[in-house]
Queue: 2 jobs
Job 1
Amino acid sequence: MHLPARMPFGARTAAVAILALSFCLPCPLLAQQELPQEIQEHTLDNGMRVLLWPVDGIPNLAVYTFWHVGSRNEAPGITGLAHFFEHMMFNGSRKYPPGEFDRTMEAAGGANNAYTSRNITVYQDWVPSSALDLTLDLEADRIGWLSVDPEVVDSERGVVMSERRRSIEDSNTRLMLEQLWAAAYIAHPYQWNVIGWRSDIENWRQQDVEEFHERWYAPNNATMIIVGAFDPIGLLPQLNEKLGSIPAREIGRDVVTVEPEQRGERRIELRKEANLASVVAAYHVPETKHEDYAALELLDLILTEGESSRLYRRLVDTDQSALWLWGSLQESFDPGLYMVMAQVRDGVESTAVEAALYEELDRIKTHGVEERELSKAKNILIADFYREMETIAGKAQALGSYELFKGGWAGLFRAAERYETVTAADLQRVAASYFRPENRTVVTLIPTSGGAEDES
Amino acid sequence: MKARTLGVALILVVAATAVQADSPTLKLPEYETRILDNGMTLLLMRHDGVPLVDMELWILDGAAADPVGQEGLASLTVDCLRKGAGDRDAAQFAEALDFLGAEYGASVDHDRTRLRLQCLDKDFEAGLELLADAVLRPRFDPTEVEKLAGQMAESVSQSKDNPRWVLGDYHRANLFGDHPYGSPVNGTETSLPGLGADAVKAFYRAHYGADRSILAIVGEIDIERTAQQVEAAFANMARGESPRVEIPPALPRTGRELLLVNKADTPQTWFRMGNIGPKWGDPDYATVELVRTIFGGRFTSRLNTKLRIESGLTYGAGYTIVREGATGSGYIRSFTATETTQEAMDLALQELDRLHADGLSADELASAKAYVKGQAPYEYERGSALANTLCTITAYDLGRDFVDGFFAAVDATTLEDCQQAIATWYPRENLVFTCIGVSAEVKETLSNYGELRERENSDPGFR
């Protein structure tokens, strides 16, 4: 789950996308996708990585900086710090006092945002091409010389508390997910929410923030991606001067904890004021680099994408036991979760929704999927690929996603191979491997008041 | 969501050549307009890039046509279109759409009904057939209609579990009252269960007319060939049996009134405060947007600076303008912990006072000009955004100068223009407040802002 940190205005809901491309279906225009020759890949003097993709189009840029740090790099007591730190990256550095990063960028026609996930932190600048130098200067200053003002720490803590209230505590869905991850993981740091526990938010110290910067925000832990209307000639020396000169540092020790195998279903109840019940079920699945991940992506589409998906047809349309449902598989460095959530209809027992859900999963385990369903899922990926490629921001996001999670950016242009070779038999095998009751965690929201006649 | 789409600057686009960024121009790509014999307006634009084609169809009647007591009818009708159309039943229609990897959307607001379909270029004919089936040959099978009406009714009650999903409906009802814009487009817990196939069919016959339809198609298309295909597909679309609904303008509200919606388990107070605002076609679009940018339209806006950046009272505060055909609306919006309700609302009102008392500074205006010009191109990178823009400027008679003249209008805006826009469109004395919060904790405080009326979140509807 991405937690957009600074949302109110950009409110650019940068679609969390799955990308793909060109299966050699009867579709010649897709076959021609080749590695764009104009993409350049550089490693600066200090080890910071840079990807440059000049694109003709709007006179603007997407400057995305991906950091290999997220809430999985936290520990009890400092949960939420990665996300809080992301906020602090906008709050003052050597040349730009608190507030100046945003004011300066906006006055030059630019906007920005950032998000933190369990795995990574991403800073997004959308600026006119004329503001490239300035943007690099702003980024370099906060990467190399962030200053953490204690007063700003306290004020920003209030902002994050408000964000937690708004995004988690005032949302039944998000509260359920918070409980879900906390129950599904007993050892690995995926167990806490990206925003962190309330009591940790209240107690972060200045020193925690400073240490976090020291440990993770080494330039050699980042990949900057620039896509849009710019002239790459001569840019490399400039990047080296501004960003490459920031001293490299040792990066913190990566997560070593491996979540032990789950040996039995875990069930959590959440009792809360609500009009309707809901249920979410999750299975441990492998990390994005794993060979089964592509099959899981396709399975998710077959199960939950669109009104022709298996679960929509069964739960929403035929049984009419759910109002809506969604499935989610997130890019991750360590083994993650595949989640399916359903909003239970009034007067229906949530156990009935669960039973139907498991029956549908079992049906795939027993009978597999149809070839046409598999083709449909691949067609959806093709169209989604072009949707993401339609904008410079989408291109930057896609490159970063492949670079960090899928074995390198060039894989974006070989996505065809990634999915083409996956067969219906693979989907059946993968469903059987992961969709097992003993590998499952379930959270049920039980309404305590507010028009829930089905409560008694 | 709808409010955001409409409220945000509908600026637009395009395609300057790379790197001459100092004075980028903003110009809507060329497009062709054709009027079909049955009165449908067809807009065709060639837009190269990715192999996707975007179709957007507007029918210029929407939720304002819902009869009293049948709120949600326009919305139910448009949602039913895909539940069986032409030769396909609901499941077959869904499968055909999904197999193309197509994106399909159907929605209404008060002014209009909107359908969009995006698919790969190579599937254009198949996509067009699905769109035409939905619009021209819906089955309105009673079982499907009732199923949907039931789902929508429960969606309303489920939305009430999430204050931010329903604050807009409450504010709309509070601001517009009995005016047609005051009704909730998605209906209420009590209005929807009574709606069936007969009501939907009647609505469809009355309002789904070629005479009030606009279809925009954007992509790597051959204009002539595409025009022929579309004419063939839509030539026999009938005229609407009723005339277009005429929506009178809403009058500004006077005085200060506050609606408090009690939701006992929320940890915070959500608030909006405002009045009616500019509608589509009102002059000074650029000026109003520049003021909004400075006051509440970007991260460093005055509202966000006071309520978030300097005080940490909220995750976000801003100003939204929702433009519609007859009357628009404008409001300050934010949320804050229950115990800081008064502090946050007072700060917001102080900023509104300061806006009137001190106006804007020259630096702020220069920054806002750079900002709206720098950000405009992103909003219209996509074919879907261009299709939406074509429908908007056509439906509201804005002309292409709405886009092509935008940068010049921005450049020409003076501080005096802004002062005038503030006086006209950012009301201070007369405000309608809508809050969702814990009544037991905040009622007394809130009664200081105006005449207070209270309702339970769990009561049906939004009035």
Job 2
Amino acid sequence: MLWPNLGLACFIVALLLAVTLAGRPRAWAYGKVPAAIALQLAGVTAVTWLLVQAIPPAGGGAPPGGAPILATPQTAGGLIEALAVPARNSLELIALAVCWGTALGATAAVLLAARRGTRLGALLPATVLIWVVPTFMIAVAIQWLQARAYDLTGTPVGGIYGEAGPLNILWAAAVLGLRPAIYGFRQTHSALEQEAGELHVRAAIARGLPWRSVVWRSVVRPAAATVVTSWLVSFRLIVGVLPLVEFFFAYPGLGNQLILALGLTYGGGRGPAEADLAVGSVVVLSFLLLAVEGLARIWRLRLDPRLQAEEVAA
Amino acid sequence: MSARRLVPLVAGILLLVALGAMIAAGWAIPARWYQNNYVAAEVLPAGKVTLPPFPPLTTARPFDLLIRHYGTHFYLLGSDPIGRDMLALIARGAVPSLLLVLAVVASRAVIGTAAGVLAALGPPTARTLVRAASAWIAGFPYLALTVVVILAFGSVLQTSVEGGSGGPSAVRWAAFIVGMTAIGWRDVAEVVAERIEHVRAQPFALGAQAVGTSGLRFFRLHVLPYLRPALAIELPFQASAVLVLLAELGFLQVFLGGSFVVTDTGRGNSSVGIYTVVLQPELGQLLSDARRLIFYNETWIALAPAVAIAVAALAFELIGTGLRGRTRWG
């Protein structure tokens, strides 16, 4: 009954926060973020637990490989240990993908805004082409490249199978971060373009300020809240597609563990399902997603005083 | 409307037509080229005997275990590991996949529209509930939720996942529809709610309400005409998203049709999977063995269905973009 209890605990935390802070509008503007996270996590935990209970534990015995892929954790401590290592691996992968995706996407958009009329403008149509390529196609292409490089050189350029080595993480992060980078670039570019047309920007230009200074002071800063929102969507894309990329590259993270814990194996057969590991993987991934969403929401409130005023009024 | 805005729409339709032609060509291939198992083939013109899978653009005379020839065949997209024509398999697999996409999009449209109407026009409690449910669904990693829902709903069909049984059943279809709808209805609901709120703020709507138009009559006269184009734009995007999701599920070994794994017995009675052989083709399922195929340098077997899905998704995306370009608010 670990998971129902955890769900209940999250629900109680949400209620306590609501009761404590509801009477204070300014505190509630920020306090409702953790309250919402706790409430959402309670729902995620309860529903995932219920759904996973409906999956039969081990219908057909061992998977094609013979031995079970994942060991069953016997205690709560064992479960935490079994979740901690993949969680750390996934966090590293996500962090790298987010960093390079955000850095590339947002920087390209800001540079494009700062250096109008340069060749960077050619990036925009190119991003449309990359954006429509699904992640699985990118993964197939990258893995094909790895296989061909191995054929030619005999060197495992993809890293060691099933390990979280530097090469494994680099390739997986490259695949994971590419579409979010494109999304971030397009959304940031769109937000900056919209902001650049505002009256305060025209006024700054009319006063004779250099364009780069206008971009930094009058375009990027007011558009920051919108950029954070687009970054959040990118993050959601990354976490959403994490099981696919990790499974495809046999990267030992939470997404891969979830798929294996559900009994889905690389050979296409069905192995034993590990209910606790499956629920735990979903809950930890959801917590990560919700926590970052919450932080981004608070960050947006800090960045844009108009939003803060709206929240307090609401 | 400028001709430039029509380009994505026309391009999307042309891509769909091309895919339709490819499916028709695949359906015209005789059954022996996608149903029989072949152990090897004489590859023409040299006549060298080769084991399957055959690469694309191969002309071959395959034969079965009893060395019976069935004629000469041109493998445009190559063959699968038991010598079956990939074009025919993709064409046959496209039908259940597209039907599933249609069912999921319809289901998302119905549930999303109902939820969106409720979120915009319903009583305050219903609005809060719908918005909370939408935010709550967003808290799940989408692929994880879909897999868990499909496995939970389809658990009664576990034996066919293990291999050996036949084609898609009603329960498995239902599981896929439920799983893929669960994560997608909120997008439609958000579009519908946003459109309704936009319409309600317009002077003509306020005027209509002032003269006593309300309820279903208000919805039919003033909301529905604005909702139809918004949904017409959203649904191709949904179709594209569902197709990509179907492919992603295929990679994760979650697919509609039955299959079996050809295994090789090793030491100590352990077995090592070699190939997943598709019994009832479906696009996502054709991708399920992608990783292994790439390592065996047989990428085309995974690439052909992957490209078919990606092109179909692109076509729907272009149609959605084209339709959006035709509207005033796009």
